[in-house]
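Notebook, p. 212. Picked up where the previous page left off. The plan for this session was modest: take the two constructs that came back from the sequencing core last week, fold each one, and keep the raw output in the notebook itself so nobody has to go hunting through shared drives later. Recording the first one now, exactly as returned: residue sequence, then the structure token string.
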Amino acid sequence: MDEDEKQFFAEGNVDIPTRLLRNYHQIGLSNEDLIVVIQLFAFSREAIKLPSSELISARTNFSQNSIQRILEKLLKHKFISFSMNNDAYDLSGLIEKLVGGGRVNPNSLSSDKSLSQLGTQKRLYQTFQREFGRMLTPMELQTISEWLKKDQFSPDLVVTALNQAVNAQILNLRYIEKILLNWKHNNVQTKEQAEADNLQHRQRYSDDSFEGKQEFKRKPPSSSGSENIKIPLKKIGEEKNL
């Protein structure tokens, strides 16, 4: 056995459930979905618990956009989920569907019904990716999705928070989430209310800065004794007496 053959067998095998290969269409997975799921099994075998879309794309002929779209679908319909520590993909949902024989309605796989008519959610992801200058990770996609579904923030409100983060040059989801939660605390629910709230904060900051400058001007100069120094004046042409 030559070295290449030894390496081939040393890499081991990936166990793929036969029922998955036999019934993946019945539970609502497409051929492309199946390939990504198999890759997740393979990465898990290699101790890569949370592969990026770039890594998965490198092993397939799918673009990163396609990989992210598929991962989003798998997450949305509970085929996969994140682990408790958000550091791995959990495929137990897929196994439950296979064991339970649960079939997903194909019509529900196309998009989120609350946003499907205008493709709002997809455009929201694209807006974030454009402002961040990179592709979003699956975890970031999940976070934005939860803002819309779990927290019930409107897409316009999320974009307004994103714009505020861009203006502050702080491009991360944690900062944007703090903005959204602050608005929720203040019962800000619309884009117009958020913009008014931002304007109010800017005006308050401007007023505070102005008062600080005025207070600085009113503050008397510190006494250093220099004001008691008298400079003798002499007329031009006056000669010094000897």
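Okay, moving on. Second construct, recorded in the same format:
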Amino acid sequence: MVKLNKIYTRTGDAGQTGLVDGSRMSKDHPRALAIGDVDEANSAIGVALLYIARAEERAMLGAIQNELFDLGADLATPGEDFTPTEMSLRVVQPQIDRLEREIDAMNESLEALRSFILPGGGAGAAHLHLARAVVRRAERSAVAAGREVALNPLALTYLNRLSDHLFVMGRLLAKHEGGDILWQPGSTRNG
């Protein structure tokens, strides 16, 4: 259990931040950037939840928000052993499997895509598309960090699958909020 008695510690005032093992790194290190992008993705999902009333989607997103904290802890844990322990949170395959099951279940009620879709289709859908784009950035940041330090490969898989999950959920919400907005290639070329 995490217990925070004091919010500011002054330990980061010189541009360093701490990792799970107590070591320090620069706040602009690729690992720190990936952790920050995961945090931003979690915040974007929190904003999306303000516009989502359906209990099933809210429950899925609540689980995802908890998992994103786990994923942030995973990224902040140095080492090359990615086995979860009581002292180290690691993303595990069953979390990815659940995302895939949820994607498949949501996708069953959707029409096949006929075009790329534009972010929108209602407030909840639009916010999920924004969260999806932030997750994609987090994935790119984690890939870059993985070139510098060892990262759990399942953390990268989770981020990739999560962006798919948010895309499909955005489409599902759009179905209930007015429908997908289809991209019309070149539609404005002639004025």
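Notes on construct two before I forget. The chain is about 55% helix and 5% strand.
Flagging for discussion at group meeting.
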